[in-house]
Amino acid sequence: MVMSLDLKNQIEKARHNLHMLVELNEGGLGHPDVIRQSMALDELINEYNRMNRSQKRT
Questions:
Q1: pLDDT tens profile 4-52
Q2: Which helix (H) or strand (E) holds 17?
Q3: φ, ψ (nearest 5 deg) of residue 27
Q4: What angle do the packed helices 32-57 and 2-24 form, to 10 degrees?
Q5: Which of 6, 22, 42, 51 is deepest in the core (most CB within 10 A)?
Q6: Residue 15 backbone phi and psi in degrees, to 5
């Protein structure tokens, strides 16, 4: 499951980037960069969940 591992690594990197952005913006969760990164992380998590759901069906 190489794709799954790669996706997990992308999720971890996006999560780390989100954490760093929140720190850089002094906890400002409404900052546009924080929101943008949060949305990118959400998309990666959604993709991971879709992959897992489709694998369970087969």
A1: 889 999 999 999 999 999 999 999 999 999 999 999 999 999 999 999 8
A2: helix 2-24
A3: 80, 10
A4: 160
A5: 22
A6: -65, -45
Q: What is the pLDDT of residue 57?
A: 76
Residue 50 is encoded by which pair of tokens?
């879709």
Nearest to 48 by CA among 1, 6, 2, 7: 7
Tokens describing residue 27: 């906890």
The span from the CA of 20 to the CA of 23, in Å, is 5
Cβ proximity of 1 and 41 under 8 Å = no
Q: Per the structure block, which two tokens stand in for 34? A: 């924080």
pLDDT value of residue 32? 96
Q: Is the pLDDT of residue 1 over 60?
A: no
Phi, psi torsion values for 48, nearest 5 degrees: -60, -45
